[in-house]
Amino acid sequence: MPILEHVLLLNFDEMKLENYLNNGKFYIWKGKFAIVKSRKPLPDSFAVIKDKNEITAIIGQSEINKNKKHIIKIDKNWKIITFDMILPFGLVGFLAKISKILADEKISIFVISAYSTDHILIKEKDSSKAINRSKSIGLKIK
């Protein structure tokens, strides 16, 4: 087998979903967050999503009063779960698996993907259930 084919097979094999679930780590951010519809991108946001129709920002709840004049709508009491691992673009099914186990528990999620990893927001009241379900598929909390 040529060396290049061997390298490609090795990389493909390493991208098995089970490898990421069984060896993966996640953590929950300490603060509470709000998902807001805003008139402009807000400073100190965890994330800003701007499309042709609206601007959405994820901000710490402690930032709400300082940005009140720019906020159109707000949904509070979210926690951020970050998957503390590099997730390659070719990995298929990671978010589908996480979404499924949380949906089975009736846990609503808001998903944000960064270049190297994924984050999900869950309501604070669902934190314990989300942690337990994530651990049940092999993920480890940091």
Structure characterization notes:
- With 142 residues, the chain is an alpha+beta fold.
- The chain has a single domain (16-141), classed as VC0802-like, CATH 3.30.2130.
- Helix content is 27%, strand content 32%.
- Strands 1, 2, 3, 4, 5, 6, 7 and 8 form an 8-stranded mixed beta sheet that branches.
- A hairpin with a 4-residue loop joins strand 6 and strand 7 (118-123).
- The longest helix is centred in the first third of the chain and has 12 residues, at 3-14.
- It is globular.
Task: Please outline the helices and strands.
Blueprint: H1 3-14, H2 17-23, E1 25-28, E2 33-38, E3 47-50, E4 55-60, E5 71-83, H3 94-103, E6 109-113, E7 118-123, H4 127-136, E8 140-141
Parallel strand pairs: 1-8
Antiparallel strand pairs: 1-5, 2-4, 2-5, 3-4, 5-7, 6-7
